[in-house]
Amino acid sequence: MDIGTSELPLKGSQLVSLRYFAPAEDVRDLVSVYYLFEVDQPRFDDNERAAIAQMRFILDGTATLSFANETSYPCENAMLVGPSTGAMHFDVNGPFRMFGVGLLPCGWAALTKQSAAGYTDKAVPADEVFTSEVDKHLVYLRGCKTAEEMTSWADKVFSVFKSKVKPEVVEFSHMVDQWLSSEPSPPVSALMERSPQSSRQVLRMVNKLYGMPPKYLARKYRALRAARAYAEHNEEELLALEDAFYDQSHMIREVKFFAGVTPTKLRVSEGETATLIDQRGRLKGNIPSIVSDT
What we know:
The structure is a single chain. By secondary structure, the protein is of the alpha+beta class. Strands 1, 2, 3, 4, 5, 6, 7, 8 and 9 form a nine-stranded antiparallel β-sheet that branches. The chain folds into two domains: 2-164, Jelly Rolls (Sandwich), CATH 2.60.120.10; 167-292. The chain has helices at 105-112, 133-143, 147-161, 167-182, 188-194, 199-210, 214-231, 235-241, 248-259, 263-268, 272-277, 289-292; strands spanning 2-9, 15-21, 31-39, 43-48, 53-66, 72-75, 78-81, 88-103, 123-125. Residues 170-269 form the HTH araC/xylS-type domain.
């Protein structure tokens, strides 16, 4: 499913565009969304909200991605980006094109077979983690004429990994996602009550699949939901979130840290990239709510 292309005019005829696609139904436990990001100008920089892990194929140009822990990574060719603990900042050298894949916890487990905690706030060349096959995928994507060719390729690639996901991992990730969506600031104790595993096992699995402890994970998605509510002027959602923060100043700090911009700026005018990212909401029902709602 394609939600179409949205573009933002910058200077003159130069544009930044971002196009989202829902993955095929049989890989939706692995992949949240596909996207094609294009910048038709020599330089462009902006903030990006805290996010799940990503596979990013740089088709043209280069970029630098900076994380909340003040580390920066050059991005070119195929990159594996781990889960982020705060807002990111990217600086693009264009013209730039990038095909991206949002990796859900099950997708991370199937592809990497490594703990996401070891890649949190990192962006590494994909060939450091995967076989040389990833380079062949990059060459194929660079030769694609349309975004539809790219998403068709991605569906086929990820369908192969579907059988590599253990049923208990799928069940566990669904449980965690339901817990995150259950209330604005779900207590960790509520997660433990949902699981037959010991507290230690739950903590270990959440770190392994999501890259951070449950308490921090809940904090992250609470702030991202608030950021989306501010951007959409959703007063009902903001009212529901009010008691999830200590006070107004606490909410402001958290939103700025995880979304990269203050609530006031979100109400008035988001950054170019954030405005485009908000398109994901149109795929609600075809991608995980934890993604479409943040």
